[in-house]
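Bench log. Compound arrived from synthesis this morning; before running ITC I wanted a structural hypothesis for how pyridoxal-5'-phosphate sits in the protein. Inputs:
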Amino acid sequence: MRIEELKTPAFLIDLPKLKANVQMMKARAQKNNVNLRPHVKTHKTAEIAKMQTAPEAPGITVSTLAEARFYQKSGFKDISYAFPITANKLSEAAELSASLNVFNILLDQPQTLSAVEEYGREHGIKFKVFLKVDCGYHRAGVDPSKPASVQLARQLAASDYIDFRGILTHAGHSYHCSNPAEIVEVARQERDVMAQFAEQLQNGGIACDTVSVGSTPTAMHAPDWQGVTEIRPGNYVFFDKFQADIGSCRPEQVAATVLTTVAAHYPAHNQMLIDAGALALSKDLGADHLGDEIVFGAVLNHPRLRLFSICQEHGLITSNDPIAFEKHPVGSLLQIIPNHSCLTAALFPKYHVVEEDQVVDEWTPMRGW
Ligand SMILES: Cc1ncc(COP(=O)(O)O)c(C=O)c1O
């Protein structure tokens, strides 16, 4: 089938670019001697996760227990659930622990530690647990400079109901950067905060086997990973406009686009209507800290066109120049590079895999919680 024959809006994955991105990150991890445990929430498919892993590095990272169940059924045996566990999810987590070779959970609250221990004591199970550390993003995790954080690590390591796996962080503040030089600084901070905290724990007699970091911008620009054992980037399989804008990737590396149809021309307003709105692209504002005009995605090969407004199913394109409407007849197709590919992908029940103008495969991602 040719791309022109698809119903729109449709989520397209450029297979050669996807493969190149997957290989690039594998090579970075190998060269720097760190384990790659990719975050698969970006795509939520078995197909891409299989490409990202290898017999010597079979582990993946997920963001929901439903994802963990989906990947367990798809044959994955080593999974980290990288959202702080809550007491009401422990029975599901216990089932996953029993059916997988490795199922890691994480926490950063003393109350959660008590809940995990209580559950373990009652049900005779030992959870594999990471301590979540805040390396500067301030979204989740303990402050490694506080004695209470060392104390929590000590309690985790000493517990009869916990197998303490190590420390884990996500440098999400790398997304506040404006260029590669700034990303390098965040990558250094992520590495140093984690390496120093791990050393402090080891010196205090607390074994800390795994030191896990991850975000696509820092994984792309880290000068090295001294003191780190594992990286967990996810977005790099597709990249997006945000990553290109902050210099995390090159624009031509972006592997995901939304195919859309021009539905109407409004020359009086210098506008075109497309059938990709917020339910096809998400309302992510992209790298709005860069101070550029807000757009909801970039129009591939037409940099002067601006997707400036979206409603649920409507998208409106304008331009600072008069639009050459004759180049975009009603019924013609455009491809939109999403601001944030993870959120955009999550809106589609299936993905179309393409090579040049041919649809070569169709993948079904998992959905739900
Ligand atoms: C805990 C955790 N690890 C890893 C990642 C992957 O980072 P990225 O989306 O930048 O690839 C995320 C993304 O939000 C995350 O929350």
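What the model suggests: The chain has eleven helices and 17 strands. The chain has a mean pLDDT of 98.
ITC booked for Thursday regardless.
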